[in-house]
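Lay summary

Proteins are chains of building blocks that fold into shapes. Our project writes down both the chain and a compact code for its shape. Here are two examples, one after the other.
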Amino acid sequence: MSYAPLTATLGMLGLMFSLVLNPTPTPSAIWWQPRPATTWQWQLLGDILTEWDVEMYDIDLFDAPQAVIDTLHDNGRVVICYFSAGTHEAWRTDAMKFPPSLLGNDLEAWEGERWLDIRQLDGLAPIIEARLDLAVEKRCDGVEPDNVDAYTHDTGFPLTYTDQLVYNRWLAQQAHARSLSIGLKNDLEQIPDLVNEFDWALNEACFAFDECDLLLRFIHANKAVFGVEYDGNPSDYCPVAVAMGFSWLTKPLDLSDVPPHACK
């Protein structure tokens, strides 16, 4: 009688028992995961001034020249690349790729920009994936997808909280599949559902609207919260921003070439 099958079976059971007691460690994320109080500069218009001594630059995916990204990397900066994930911008080089059925209402005060039907992921996904691939090609370290709170706006589509949640989770998954860091832009109401899937948060004017406490979930998760105020007195909101662990700037609405004006 051969004992080989029994020995093999016992060996396999031993291996399975070992895996239960000592599961394979989950690999650490290989993309950028900033901590609270990370310094940064945000500029989406004009020639990028690369000389500010900050840890991260947030610049436009399409408009930023490769030489600027390379210079920032040479200077030891992390480069985050901005694009709109929730609207169609008529001036972008890929604007003609969006099917007309995806286009909804105009954005107030933003000429040439229309909301997208994020429910139609079959038509939208190839375009957004191409933008993420462009971010990889240009050697961006991460992305800042804008307009990811469409369900709270008059888009022309009956978008729901769940529609937005599905889309935003898909964005995070697609970014991480490409080893790109990704931030949650505004979308404050969904932070409890998304804080574990995004690497940092970015907010506009939470002090002006008295809603900054909603961002503290990211701080409690040891994740950076970047933000900007366009109006108000920095002497009023900066001490509070610093105490909360936020990385806050004072900027003009067009996010042009101005110093970071960081709260300290």
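And here is the second example, written the same way.
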Amino acid sequence: MIKLFKRIRQNLISKGNTGKYLTYAFGEIILVVIGILIALQINTWNEARKNKALEKSMLENLVQNLEQNSDKMKSHIKSINFYRKSGAVVLAAIENKLIDQDALEDQFHKALMNTSSVGLSETGYTVIKNNGFKIIRNQTLKNELMAFFEDTQPHLLGDLSWGTIDIADREKFVDEHFIQLSNENGLTYKPFNLERLLNNDYFIALVHKTDVQRGWFTIILERHLKDTQEMIKKIKEELNK
């Protein structure tokens, strides 16, 4: 093709057809420009196709990540409610002065267990951040993802940290007032003196505080679970477009 254009130019020059040559040269420039524009457009299409595939992959990964978090929260809420039952048994014993070693021995560990750690993952969101948010074409979805992972979820984890602020004091109290044993039901706390324990103001306050914490953790986890499921729904809607 290049040789053909070269022969045409040489033929026009040799015949002295300057006007035709200039017209031809201009046409040749137009063809080159058109070729460049087509090549650029093809490259743009290819990049857009690659970005769309990458966006789809990252959003699918994020959905999987959020669904795993949802399962963790559902399981954790069940665990909290399970441990709250032991807390209720101990609180009833305190209130009614029920000194029954056998009935209470398996309840103390569950009543005092820290249930604030849920371990939510942000792997899918981190991948999107590392690749750049421009990969997400839907600006509304992008803003909602940023708000969810940069504000909503950190706020939840901050609230859950309430359960860890007195771990050292709690462990010290347990060591001073219980002997830790294990049986077919797992770990148990056996008090050195049950009657004295049930009249200990710090212990009474500790059991009440633990129960209040668990009630609050259940509320905020259920709220975040709902927000997470709503976010999953929005991402799936975007994937189905």
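What can we say about the second shape? The chain has a mean pLDDT of 84.
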